[in-house]
Amino acid sequence: MPTIAVTFYDVVLTIHILAVVVAFGVVFAYALIDAQIKRSGPGDLAALHRLHVVLARTLITPAMVVVLLAGLYLALDRWSLGDPWISATFAILIVLFGLTGAVLTPADERLAQLAERDAKAGGAPSADYEREAQRANAFGGVALLLVVVAIFLMVAKPGM
Ligand code: HEM
Asked: pTM for the whole thing?
């Protein structure tokens, strides 16, 4: 009868991949969710951006910390932090922390305020809102691209 040897490494790798799903899965749906909510008016847009902020602080950032800690364990156990695919992904994750904390979350806070102001004025999203949203979408796109590159580096392990 075949035996299945499950190592602690396998458990940590599972946690690492689960944390990747939790941290970034929802972000890939943002474009669709945002477009849907935008159709229903500025009042709902404020709630949408507040939800983005809550998700960034209570789900995405903590899950990224788990990605980092589990990744460090895996790297130190069987690989090396000097391996190019690991050091490059490490750098990408640091950039993602920066983008989330210093760019995207503050942008969502500003967008929530602007959407509230627009809703009170009773009109469509203002030019200020559209400008800020465009900037946030551009940075959000960069973040998603970095996640795709990180997954490719982790799977293909170029340089190995
Ligand atoms: C955005 C950040 C990250 C993403 C999306 C990501 C994604 C993944 C994925 C999908 C795997 C499974 C690959 C496979 O089994 O073929 C993996 C494995 C791994 N990751 Fe990450 N990871 C990230 C960050 C990190 C960091 C920062 C480190 C180290 C400091 C790291 C170290 C590792 C190691 C050592 C493996 C195990 C490879 C193996 O045993 O085959 N990861 N990662």
From this structure: 0.94
